[in-house]
Design brief:
Layout: H1 2-5, E1 16-18, E2 27-32, E3 35-44, H2 51-68, E4 72-82, H3 88-104, E5 108-116, E6 121-130, E7 146-149, H4 155-164, H5 170-181, H6 185-193, E8 198-201, H7 206-218, E9 221-225, H8 235-240, H9 247-255, E10 259-261, H10 267-274, E11 282-286, H11 291-300, E12 307-312, E13 319-322
Parallel strand pairs: 4-5, 9-13, 10-13
Antiparallel strand pairs: 1-2, 2-3, 3-6, 4-6, 7-11, 7-12, 8-11, 9-12
């Protein structure tokens, strides 16, 4: 995708406040003083058997890009790939799940587009609003900032377990679905309130891929402490057993040359740091004196937000992972 985008003319318009230049989470377009639109689109294939739950997860995943910028969703369009001969009741449940997630976000589903596809795909095109003075971009992390991650990792291993096993461990299933169903709304509102300097949501490129984009855009180096990272239950054991998300290989190939690991980081941890996440949390860069306030706001909403690293001096766009 990056190679294809490089061949296109970059849009130049003073109203375009955030475009594709820094690989940020969503585009931001100025409508008038004090008001801008946030726009994004995303879709997924199912990772759970329940169509309603899948619809909610896919919608939460799409809404997340708006939240990563500090915006609020307004409207959404369904984007659906569905096999022609599949059960229409499944499609209804997927759409119902998506609609409920958008309503929870305070938005409205206003239409959409469905196309015939060999496998189910579902997501949203989302339009939100934002105060142009309060946009949280991925290119403004500052040396000394603390990095906080608002959801546990391991959705990729969970997805593989769902496909490979007759029955997934109930503790893992409950924790994974709860995490993926949780909107990043509370985390987004808290980061804006606490003066976050930069943020991104952790989805297809995994923690390290999205973090590398933040490091490169911010012209900084990031350091992560794997011992502080929260993982879904059982996923490290599953990773040790050889279960691996396909996104690991893709993300390592795309971003691996910028990431250095200490010898003490286990291979199971490394794989999960690289794997693609579905409806993952926000990676937020905060001034050190606002971290406890941010975490307290998350805790009131039942969200765990460990400090997992910091922004440091060093070669721009690089990452080090320590034990």
């Amino acid at each position: 995708m990056a190679l294809a985008l490089k061949q296109l003319k970059r849009p130049e318009d003073p109203r375009l406040l955030v475009g594709i230049n820094t690989a940020d989470d969503a585009g931001v377009f100025l409508l008038q003083d004090g008001l801008a639109l946030v726009q994004t689109v995303d879709l997924l294939t199912p990772m759970v058997d329940d169509p309603y739950v899948f619809g909610r997860i896919a919608a939460a995943n799409s809404l997340s890009d708006v939240y990563a910028m500090g915006g609020s969703p307004l409207t959404a369009l369904n984007v659906v790939g569905f096999p022609e001969r599949s059960n229409p009741d499944w499609l209804a449940e997927i759409l119902r799940g998506g609609q409920d997630a958008v309503e929870e976000a305070g938005g409205l589903v206003v239409g959409g587009h469905t196309f015939n596809e060999s496998e189910i795909k579902y997501g949203l095109s989302v339009t939100g609003q934002i105060d142009p003075k309060r946009i949280v971009k991925n290119n403004s992390a500052q040396v000394g900032n603390v990095l906080v991650l608002t959801k546990p990792l391991g959705c990729g291993v969970f997805g593989q377990a769902m496909m490979a096993q007759d029955e997934v461990d109930p503790e893992l299933y409950e924790a994974a679905t709860k995490s993926m169903l949780t909107l990043n709304r509370a985390a987004s509102e808290a980061m804006v309130e606490c003066g976050a300097t930069a943020a991104t949501d952790v989805t297809g490129y995994g923690l390290l891929g999205h973090a590398q984009e933040m490091a490169e855009a911010s012209k900084a180096r990031l350091r992560f402490h794997v011992g502080a990272v929260s993982f879904l239950p059982k996923v490290l054991e599953l990773s040790d057993s050889g279960m691996k998300d396909p996104g690991v290989k893709m993300n390592q190939a795309s971003f691996g040359k910028w990431v250095e690991f200490d010898e003490g980081v286990a291979k199971s941890e490394t794989r999960i740091l690289w794997e693609s996440q579905t409806s993952g949390g926000l990676l937020v860069a905060l001034p050190p004196d606002r971290v406890k306030e941010f975490q307290a706001m998350l805790e009131k909403q039942g969200i765990c937000g460990p400090a997992v690293g910091e922004v440091i001096k060093g070669l721009a766009g690089t990452i080090e992972v320590r034990r």
